[in-house]
Amino acid sequence: MNRPKVLAKERYLELYRKLVMIRRLEEKIDELFRQGVIKGAVHLSIGQEAVAVGVSEALDKKDLIIATHRGHGHCLMKGADLKSMMAELCGKATGLCKGKGGSMHIIDVKRGMLGAVGIVGSGMPMATGVGLAIKMQRTGQVCVCLFGDSASHGGMFHESLNVASLWKLPVVFICENNLYGLTVSMKKASAVKDIAIRAKAYAVPGVVVDGMDVLEVQRAVQRAVKRARDGLGPSLLECKTYRFMGHSRGDPAYGPYRTREEWESWKQRDPLLVLMNKGGLTSKEVEGIDREVSREIEEAVRFAEESPEPDLSSALEDIYA
What we know:
By secondary structure, this protein is of the alpha/beta class. It is 44% helix and 11% strand.
């Protein structure tokens, strides 16, 4: 259905705001990490924002997601409070996990963010279990499980897809294929070009998606969510994307394992640029959004700075093992 042009432009601006919110947040996280304010390990998703936004746009509030260690954008787009997220990253008592989770284990259960999981691939059996709970309790929810390309080479990938398909569980498996598992190229680690083709082995749809285009991601996830909600079982989506930063702090944006030419070619398909071009957005139209988002980020940093450190007596609280 064609919508009035003014509404279409508003929609593009709304999506741009979400993309740039993740971008500016992670740029600030990188800055604070290098200053020693944020401790532990940090993995950025700069370049992959279209996946986080596209997934969230296709879900209802009641739906659930399990993300990876590169999960800041997923958590924010699921509705987490920006200030509480920043406090968590800075290890403060006002954080989402009272300062105990940090970057790699950020969680907001109330908003359906069941966790950013640090162990590669471990989110898939968890999501399968969540899918079984949803089916048994008949809540009508869908669980989206995000993972990286390397996780798809492990046994948990195959076990999870098999069981989810066999039992028709409402799970959408989404591989964020950024072409590198740490520093190892997908070309050296996979016998197949497209991970999505593996879905055939488990009788579920396997779809390759342009992971740099938020609208393409949204449409693909909507189809998979409908299938899951209709009781037809899981889908496997492979979002082809690219991280513009290194795997973590230890490696640069390009070299020694990625060429500058490859990096620059993907920069031409920056998710923000793709959306601006599709929506016909001008630099002037997005400048105000950029300023507004930057102010929100700085306010979140101030909140974190002024928040108290966790009390030592809370160290053994919230432990269930």
